[in-house]
Every structure is written in C-alpha cells, then in structure tokens.
Design brief:
This protein is of the alpha+beta class. The chain has 2 helices and 4 strands, in the order βαββαβ. 21% of the residues are buried. Bound molecules: iron/sulfur cluster (SF4) (2 copies).
Length: 68
C-alpha cells in the first residue's frame, strides 16, 4: 500500500508539497501548530496517493517519507 507520512515537526508549512501533489493528497492544517509554531502539512486524502514522491522531492525540509 502506498503511504505518505509528514514528519510534522520538521515542516514549516510552506505548502510546496500541497502544490506538487497531482492527486490532492496533502493539505496545510488549519487546526493545529507543530513544535516550530507552523501550521504543518497533513495527509488529507491518503487513499489517493500513488507514491510518485513529487511531494518528497519538492519539500525543502525533507519532512516527507514515502512508502510503496
Ligand atoms: S507521493 Fe505523489 S501522490 Fe503521494 S502525496 Fe506525494 S505527490 Fe501526492
Ligand atoms: S513542502 Fe515540506 S515544509 Fe513545506 S509544507 Fe510540505 S512538508 Fe512542510
């Protein structure tokens, strides 16, 4: 099963991964802050992930892990 994981406390909420994803899997949280004080990316639509890794390649903070 494809699985995308956000390492939340590494994330600075820049949104690049949300824009990079072709399947609208990711979203920026509107409800909670991470330890750094940012609204982090979260996995809003996990079933849609195709494990293409576009999000992980885009993330400047290596905060995304992909498992196939
Ligand atoms: S691996 Fe691809 S489909 Fe899955 S969340 Fe990242 S960009 Fe979207
Ligand atoms: S690209 Fe990385 S730092 Fe930016 S919102 Fe996504 S997970 Fe967070």
């Amino acid at each position: 099963m494809n699985k995308v994981t956000i390492l939340e406390d590494w994330c600075k909420g820049c949104g690049l991964c949300v824009r990079a994803c072709p399947k609208a899997v990711l979203a920026i949280s509107t409800t909670h802050l991470n330890k750094k004080g940012y609204y982090p990316a979260e996995v809003a639509n996990p079933e849609a992930c195709i494990a293409c890794a576009a999000c992980a390649r885009t993330c400047p903070d290596t905060a995304i892990e992909i498992e196939k």
